[in-house]
Design a protein that fits this description.
By secondary structure, this protein is α/β, with parallel strands linked by helices. The protein has two domains: about 5-110 and about 230-255, 3-Layer(aba) Sandwich (Rossmann fold), CATH 3.40.50; about 120-225, 3-Layer(aba) Sandwich (Rossmann fold). Helix content is about 30%, strand content about 20%. The chain has helices at about 20-30, 60-70, 85-100, 125-130, 185-195, 210-220, 240-255; strands spanning about 10-15, 35-40, 55, 75-80, 105, 120, 135-140, 155-160, 175-180, 200-205, 225, 235. A six-stranded parallel beta sheet has the order 3-2-1-4-5-12, with helices on both faces. Strands 6-11-10-7-8-9 form a six-stranded parallel beta sheet. The structure holds NADP nicotinamide-adenine-dinucleotide phosphate. NADP nicotinamide-adenine-dinucleotide phosphate binds near residues 81 and 87. NADP nicotinamide-adenine-dinucleotide phosphate (NAP) binds near residues 17, 39, 82 and 84. Pathway: Cofactor biosynthesis; adenosylcobalamin biosynthesis. GO terms for molecular function: precorrin-6A reductase activity. Keywords: Cobalamin biosynthesis, Oxidoreductase, Plasmid. Its EC number is 1.3.1.54.
Amino acid sequence: MNSVSNTRRPAVLLLGGTSEAGAIASHLATHPDLKLISSLAGRVAHPKLPTGQTRIGGFGGVEGLITYLQQEKIQIVIDATHPFAANISRNAAAACQRLGIPLISYVRPPWTPQQGDHWQDVPDLEAAAALTRSYHRIFLAIGRQELAPFATCIHPWFLIRTIDQPDVPLPPNAKLILARGPFHLADELRLLKAHAIDCIISKNSGGPATYDKLEAARILGLPVIMVDRPTPPTNNVHTIEAVLSQISTELGRLITKY
Ligand code: NAP
């Protein structure tokens, strides 16, 4: 059988911004049978760059992504973006469908409540903001980009943690701390106790890096308002191994086409 490396190495676009995308890039950047390009949204000022070739910034919607895929002669797309990054996932699905390019979608498994957890699931951040009046001191751990629904919440005091400085107005009674995970249980317990937090608002991002605040909430008996994910892409896989296996399958298909 021909090896792809004996012909032209197919270009693979990896939509990233997650630790899992970084792990996939580590596996594939030196793969002899493909050329990998990682793509980051450019949301954080100093991103952890993945191994290998990387581009940063939006493509310009579906049409821009289609143009990019054509220009770079991309033959496989891997979507390993954050579970709340629904727009880029939707755009990737539309662009791949239009061009007939295989799309491998990785979705990080969501967190599920354990015994002792007091979670209230809400569909979106607006619904979470509507519940804030019931609490006095809220730890708002939802990142930087989606703080807007809380800007008019005047009743509770908020502890807000983001990686970079938010560029939207914060609620009037708030303290901002800038920090990047992973966060560890002892530190999360200390943070919650030091600020007398009585509720946490979290997105159901999944993964280990930001989970320990939920374990701390369980230990302290604190309620958690948990924001559900947007609808995930169809035909997704939940492990890095499954992504690598699908890549092998797609490469095999491409080899037989040459
Ligand atoms: P989004 O709403 O899905 O994407 C908005 C736009 O950003 C996309 O339409 C695309 O712009 C660009 N974009 C997103 N990911 C990209 C990538 N990997 N490469 C190139 N362009 C990309 O996602 P978001 O605005 O970044 O974030 C939405 C939610 O996801 C937030 O809750 C955020 O906290 C969470 N999140 C995102 C990331 C991330 O790396 N994106 C990481 C952690 C958490 P064009 O339409 O111009 O192509």
